[in-house]
Amino acid sequence: MKSLMRKAVSFLKKEDGPTAVEYAVMLALIIVVCIAAITALGSTASQTFSYVNGQVAAGNGAS
Q1: pLDDT of residue 27
Q2: Which 8-state DSSP code applies to residue 1?
Q3: So where are the chain's domains?
Q4: Residues of 19-39 as b/e, b for ≥16 C-beta within 10 angstroms?
């Protein structure tokens, strides 16, 4: 257990530790933004496809 603690402390003291944490935080933020954008655009796209579907269906019934 002490060996694991020593390795953890050594990792955090090196510059690689904070850099890895910074990259992990940036990646998490990018993922959150992507999910929010997909959710917002997905709703709009769904409404657009429903509208187009209704227009096409109305056009097919008129012939």
Answers
A1: 95
A2: -
A3: 1-61
A4: eeeeeeeeeeeeeeeeeeeee
